[in-house]
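User: Reviewer 2 asked us to show a designed sequence for the structure in our supplementary figure. I'm pasting the structure tokens here. Could you produce the per-position amino acids so we can include them in the response letter?
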């Protein structure tokens, strides 16, 4: 399962759904930290000791195209939503920051509902 592959199980429910709705955190840092955790876990599983920051290009730190697919699945599991096909673009998966912007934009309408 994706949860086991990404170490998501047991991460706690910070920012998770309450009564079926996602609660966005007041600051994007929590989203960013969660994405960084996913990227670092993929790197760890690949035995890659790269430093990764929010601005790091994901391909430059060692993520392959298959790792990007795993990251996409991990993001969907971590944030409990399906990334729309139109958002699965190289631009959105360039860095943690670009992923964060896409995730926040996708989840904001749901949080406001």
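Assistant: Here is a per-position design you can include in the supplement:
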């Amino acid at each position: 399962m994706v949860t086991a592959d990404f170490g998501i199980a047991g991460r706690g429910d910070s920012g998770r759904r309450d009564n079926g709705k996602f609660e966005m955190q007041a600051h994007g840092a929590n989203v960013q930290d969660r994405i960084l955790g996913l990227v670092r876990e993929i790197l760890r599983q690949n035995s890659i000791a790269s430093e990764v920051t929010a601005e790091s290009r994901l391909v430059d730190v060692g993520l392959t195209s298959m790792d990007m697919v795993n990251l996409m699945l991990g993001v969907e599991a971590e944030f409990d939503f399906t990334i729309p096909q139109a958002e699965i673009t190289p631009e959105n998966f360039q860095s943690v920051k670009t992923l964060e912007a896409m995730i926040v934009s996708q989840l904001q309408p749901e949080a406001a509902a």
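For the response letter, you might also mention the following. The first strand starts at residue 17 and ends at 18. The radius of gyration is 13 Å.
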